[in-house]
Recover the amino acids of this structure.
């Protein structure tokens, strides 16, 4: 299935884009999204454990399922305020 | 009430919105752009947000704060975009019948906002370097 992933902050800077289209297996998880992003943009790899995936506006555990219509985002630790 | 803005925060409006005759206390917290961090000097900051999720999370914060304290008015405003030294990045205003709760709620709101709201700040250092601030990520990683 095709999904779009929004990227923010350092993740966006390293990927050089605010949004990436990925091709994932039908029953992909948030962990699969992270792995696919790193495979597509190897410079994201050092951020590894600090790369969070959100699904429909909620931080997702690695095993969280992803649907074709899921809103996905990928970002490092937040620093607002 | 929560909002994100690209413009300077209207502090008078935030304060006016928080005041009510039902309140005996109004606490206003401002986060401001500080010049010195450790031994480095900031020239300016850039803030970026995942707007939809940030708005939702800020609303959740207000709802949770209202569950914990007898809040009358609650206003959270976070500014994004380019900020200069001394600019206000975030305003948190709460009013309650008595001051103890207003202080506690305001502190909880800003402390928790800094943990969970998808907003990121980039330091533009005086020496010309720029780097995203990501707590827990080693300084040189990815930069």
């Amino acid at each position: 299935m095709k999904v779009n992933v929004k990227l923010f902050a350092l993740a966006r800077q390293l990927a050089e884009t605010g949004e990436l289209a990925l091709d994932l297996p039908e029953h992909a998880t948030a962990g699969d999204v992270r792995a696919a992003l790193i495979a597509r943009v190897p410079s994201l790899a050092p951020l590894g454990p600090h790369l969070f995936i959100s699904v429909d506006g909620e931080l997702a555990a690695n095993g969280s399922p992803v649907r074709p219509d899921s809103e996905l985002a990928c970002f490092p630790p937040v620093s607002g305020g | 009430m929560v909002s994100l803005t690209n413009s300077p925060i209207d502090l008078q409006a935030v304060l006016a919105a928080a005041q009510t005759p039902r309140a005996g206390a109004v606490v206003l917290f401002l986060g401001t752009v500080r010049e010195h961090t450790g031994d480095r000097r900031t020239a300016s900051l850039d803030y970026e947000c995942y707007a939809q999720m940030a708005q939702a999370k800020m609303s959740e914060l207000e709802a949770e704060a209202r569950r914990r304290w007898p809040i009358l008015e609650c206003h959270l405003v976070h500014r994004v975009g380019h900020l200069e030294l001394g600019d206000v990045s975030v305003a948190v205003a709460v009013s309650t019948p008595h001051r103890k709760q207003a202080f506690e709620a305001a502190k909880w709101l800003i402390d928790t906002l800094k943990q969970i709201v998808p907003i990121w700040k980039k330091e533009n250092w005086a020496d010309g370097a720029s780097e995203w601030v990501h707590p827990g990520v080693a300084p040189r990683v990815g930069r």
